[in-house]
Amino acid sequence: MGIEQFDPVEFEHGGVKIAASVGGSGSPVLLLHGYPQTKYMWHLVAPRLAEQHTVVLADLRGYGDSDKPTPAPDESTYSKRAMAADQLALMRSLGHDSFAVAGHDRGGRVAHRLALDAPEAVEKVALLDIVPTLHMYENVDRAMATSYFHWFFLASPNGVAEKLLRVNPRAWLRSRFDGRNAGGRPIDDAAYAEYERCFLSYGAVAASIADYRSAATIDLVHDGESRERGERIEAPLLALWGGQSYVGKNFDVCSVWSEYARDVRGLPVDSDHYVAEEAPDQVSVELLKFFNEDRHPALPPHLNGEGGS
């Protein structure tokens, strides 16, 4: 069963349409994509999960076939809190009051906020190739500014990023993938065509830029408030990261997440940043292993010796 056989779903939350697809049966799992992708990024992983779980693939607001509302001046439209609320409402509309969630890149940041804002709903959370946004901004160095320059470029004010990206959006889109493969499976043509179709759709450039502006402003406020209140992710957390990615090379991933979550485990994947597409077999195995465990006891931050690099 490929994701083309998943059932399409459209759900409206607060006037914003969220596009999703549902397939499989069993305990529910929500999969959230990263930038500049769509729910299609899970096309090699979702069918395997669907053999044992009800899998919900969703486009974040501003991406894919979901709506792309005009950003508010206070950056709240694309805050991770607003994006997480979309996904919580979507899952409840499908009859899932509690569920597991996995997110890559931007989707991982949405999943992080979802686990904080709705701990009663999130049973398990898997985060792919990220460390927390707050930690990233509090630890900016040359490596981060060079590898993740787009964080600062896209967050720049006065419409600079929008004007430049609209000159040649295809070149920008391609630049997000070029050179980010460690020798594994490349992004296939069908996937790239889908990402291009959606990135070139009306409002997509402005919406994705607003996502990054929110990360540099209101998201940091929300994350700081959560830290001040002592909020941590209560659900068991699995971190997977590319062994050759910026994250894998520059952070002790599990140690960092242990400051933000109570029960952390994880391991590197033989890939660069796009782990679910470059190493789908390993990602599928690890996600199934994690989601299928009935429970697991709290582990030390170093994860039984399997820390980051």
Structure notes:
With 309 residues, this protein is an alpha/beta fold. The chain has a single domain, classed as Rossmann fold (3-Layer(aba) Sandwich), CATH 3.40.50. Helices cover 40% and strands 17% of the residues. The protein has 15 helices and eight strands. Strands 1-2-4-3-5-6-7-8 form an eight-stranded mixed β-sheet, sandwiched between helices. Strand 3, helix 1 (46-49) and strand 4 (53-58) form a beta-alpha-beta unit. Helix 2 (80-93) crosses helix 3. It starts with 6 loop residues before the first strand and ends in a 17-residue tail after the last helix.
User: Uncertain spans, ≥5 residues at pLDDT below 50?
Assistant: 295-309
* Average pLDDT rating: 94
CATH superfamily: Alpha/Beta hydrolase fold, catalytic domain
Say how many strands there are: 8
Can you give me a brief rundown of this structure?
With 309 residues, the chain is α/β, with parallel strands linked by helices. It has helices spanning 46-49, 80-93, 106-117, 133-138, 142-147, 149-154, 160-167, 169-175, 189-199, 204-215, 218-228, 246-250, 253-257, 275-278, 280-292, and strands at 7-13, 16-24, 27-32, 53-58, 99-104, 122-128, 237-242, 264-269.
